[in-house]
Amino acid sequence: MGIPEGMAKPEEQRLGPVLRRRDQVQPGTTDQRLLDTEGDSEWVHTDPWRVMRIQSEFVEGFGALAELPSAISVFGSARTRPDSPEYEAGVRIGRALVEAGFAVITGGGPGAMEAANKGAREAKGVSVGLGIELPFEQGLNPHVDIGVNFRYFFVRKTMFVKYAQGFVVLPGGLGTLDELFEALTLVQTRKVTRFPIVLFGSAYWKGLVDWLKDTVVAGGKASERDLLLFHVTDDVDEAVALVTKEVGR
């Protein structure tokens, strides 16, 4: 409809909670733009619409995972080969976590994630995969019983933290390191109640741990006690015992 002919453009316009004045006043009304069937589809790529998508991802994730039993998130590389010792360790960890009374949450992809889901499924536990939309399609591995795919990394990472009582981190690349340091930062800053973070594979993690100790802590960029935020082990039983002990199971 726009502004009726002969009527001056208003100096002030209220569009819901938004106030527009002077040159920022828009023609027409919100209802008019909603009901107008003409125009292109660019609106689906605008930031307000993205907010609704983000909200819907949180709602779907919370709804799917709210009734999970106590769970542990297992991180690791999608590139871990099925015939590798790391893959076998992932299977054993997934199985042992279920036997200790936990559900297992992974990123739902191949490699180490698939291994942990496989172990959980073989032990007849709850096997969860939280996938992510990527330019190269991965899909959820066949051992996932409850799967949720996300568009946004930050929503997915919220689910990892909210519905897990601890983390077990297998050897991995940049994505695994991102998830690890996100968890360490949340615990360090007390954004979450402290929970166990276990790095599995001492030979793999040694360089990182040494760098944290000899460079980051030694340079005053972190405190000595921050090194106590995680444990390193090569033993599956010890990894499970650490998370079990710290969550009071």
TrEMBL record:
Enzyme Commission code: 3.2.2.n1
Keyword Hydrolase: yes
Superkingdom of origin organism: Bacteria
Keyword Kinase: no
Span list, region Disordered: 1-33
Biased composition (Basic and acidic residues): 8-24
Name recorded for this polypeptide: Cytokinin riboside 5'-monophosphate phosphoribohydrolase
Source taxonomy: Bacteria, Bacillati, Actinomycetota, Actinomycetes, Kitasatosporales
